[in-house]
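> run fold Beta-ketoacyl synthase
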Amino acid sequence: MSLPPDDEELLAIIKETVPPGRVRHIHPEATLRQAGIDSLCMVLIVGRFLERYPGPAEPLEKQLGSVRTIRELLDLGRVAREAWGHENGHG
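> ok
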């Protein structure tokens, strides 16, 4: 399954952050458990999203507890990207 280029960038951020050996389990339909992503790794991934797309953390924090799949994690990355775009006149 092919992802849009912007989502590929978010997926790359996730892959760079997960523990070694877990990258092959990273695909949109995987659950966080299947991908080996625990709460600490989630915090690191969200931190990486915010490094790439600086902006308010609150919108991400509100949704963080409901994230169960890589696709939902990509949604969080999109929220960060959209907030950054609006703050910087790109959206």
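The CA atoms of residues 5 and 18 lie 20 Å apart.
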